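Dear H.,

Thanks for agreeing to be a second pair of eyes. The structure we're designing against is below in token form, covering all 109 positions.
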């Protein structure tokens, strides 16, 4: 008989990453971790631990082993600029003057 086990150590609760969104207009931010056996318990622990000072707009818990991230060693190849797409960089556009026209524009109507 084969029994499927979780990716954590047998009997140990899973680690969950906690993300909180304090109010509208702001992004979720990682605030810490909790250990729990299931998502509902993790959410309950996260609420008790991380929402004591105010009422956030939302709270997320994600199993730690489900989070994938680029390491600092991968920074250069992973986040390299796409120089073949110059429209993504502000230096490719003419600066604006105080009246909203591009400098050097001879387009007077």
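And this is the sequence the design step returned. I haven't edited it by hand at all.
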């Amino acid at each position: 008989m084969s029994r499927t086990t979780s990716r954590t150590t047998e009997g140990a609760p899973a680690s969950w990453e906690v993300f909180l969104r304090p109010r509208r207009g702001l992004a979720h931010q990682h605030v810490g971790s909790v250990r729990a056996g299931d998502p509902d318990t993790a959410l309950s622990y996260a609420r008790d631990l991380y929402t004591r000072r105010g009422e956030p707009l939302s709270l997320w818990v994600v199993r730690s082993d489900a989070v994938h991230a680029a390491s600092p060693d991968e920074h250069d190849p992973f986040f390299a600029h796409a120089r073949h797409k110059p429209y993504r960089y502000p230096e490719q556009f003419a600066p604006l003057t105080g009246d909203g026209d591009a400098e050097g524009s001879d387009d007077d109507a």
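Two observations from my side: The longest helix spans residues 39-50. The beta strands are 14-21, 29-36, 58-63.

Warmly,
E.
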